[in-house]
What does this fold into?
Amino acid sequence: MIDILTAVRSEVLGNARDVFVYLPPGYDPAAGPYPLVVLHDGQHVFAGAGLEPSWRVDETLDTLIGRGLLPPLVAVAVANAGDQRGSEYSHEVPYPRGPVVPCRGELYEQFLVTELLPMIRARYAVTNEADATAVLGSSMGGLVSYHLAFRRPDVFGLAAVLSPFLVFVDPETLEETPVFRRFDRRGPNRIWLDIGGMEGLIMVRPVRELAEHLLGLGYLPDEELRYLHEPNAAHHEDAWAGRVGSALLHLFGTEGPATTLTGVTARAAVGQPVDLAPRGERADGCVYTALGAELSWEPEHALKPAGHALLTGAEPGDVEVTAQVGEHAVTEQVTVVDGERDALLDVTVVVPEDTQTGPVYFSGLVTTRVGPGIHHGSWRLPRGVGLNGTVSRGWRCDGLDADGTLVRTPLRHDGGRRVWVRVAGWSNPAQDDPHAGS
It folds into this structure.
C-alpha cells in the first residue's frame, strides 16, 4: 500500500512537494514501531505510484519482506523539487550543472529532520531510533544521503549511497571539482556504497577512493561498510532498481558470509590502480564487492598493493591473482599493459539538421558543432572508463533512433578509438511532472 501525501509544505525551504509512503503488507500500527527508510527523488521510487523510469522499490520490498529476508518496514519517498533539486541536495559546493545557486542542503536537512519526520511519526507507527532509520538515494540523492548520514548520525544510523555524484567533471575541459566533504570521523553505523562501471563522468575512481577513506575511519569491510561495483551498469533508474535490494539487505537484513565468490578480469596500464575485489553473494541474495578479500599473485613483481583488494600495475604482462574470502577462493586474471593511463576518444554525432542550437552531449561529454547536423568531440580519457553511449541535449532530452528508442552505444574505453553516432530525433523533456514540487 502506498499513501500519497500531496503538496507537503516546507516552511524552511519555502516550497512544497509530494511524499509517497510505502506501508508493508499487513501494516498494523499496534505492531509498530516499524523500521524506516527515507528516499530522495521520490517520484521515481515506487512503481505503484509515481513516474517512470522507476526504482520499483515497492515491488522489491514486497518480495523481500514476503520471503522473510527483510523485516516489515515503512519507506518514505520524498519527491525532489524540480529545478531546485541540485541546490537542495548540495551541502558543500553549489550545484555546478546550470546557473550557480547557493547550497540549500542544510535547509533540506532541516525540512527532513524538523518538519517531515515528526509529521510521519505522528501519522505512522515508525521508529525514532537511529539504528533502525536509513537514508537512501542515488546520484545527487546519493550525495545528500552521504552528507545527511554523516552530519546527523543521531537521526540516520544507516545510509545507502548509490552512484553518488562526488566529483563534477567539466564536460568541456574534463577538470575535476570535488563536491563532497571528506569526513574525519565515523558517522552512521552501517553504510552501503555502490557505483556502475558504465556511468561515464560519474566515475568509479572517486567512489572507490571514498570506500578506502571510510575503511580508514575504522568501518569493517563487508560488515559495517559494504561496497558494490557493477561493471556494466549505467547511471539510470533501471540500474538502481537492480541494486536497491542488496542495499536494503545490507542495512536491514541478517548478516551472513558469502556463499559464492566470482572473480574479475581486468586490464590496466603501468601505474594505474586496478580493483581486484571479487564479487560475493550471500544466501539471501545480497550481492557486493568483497573489499575484505585477501589477495596473492604471481609474478609478485608485476603488481603492488594500493589498498583493500586494490593493486597497481608495476610491470607489463599477465598476472594470475587469487582472492580468498573465508573458505572461498577464486582465481582472477590481470593484464598490465605498457603505455599511458589515458587514451584518445574521437566521436562524431550526426543529428537532424533542424536541431535547435545548443550543446550536444555524448555520454555527458560536450561536443562542438562543426557543420549542419554534425557535432564532434575529442577527449583523452582514463583507460577503463565506461560510457553509456547516449546522446542528449540536456536533462531528459535524449537522442532517439528511427524507431523512437534511446540511442545507446555503450563502450569500455580501454584504447584509442573513433565512434560515429546517428540521431533521428529527440525525446520531449517538457512532459508534465505532477510531483516535481512548486
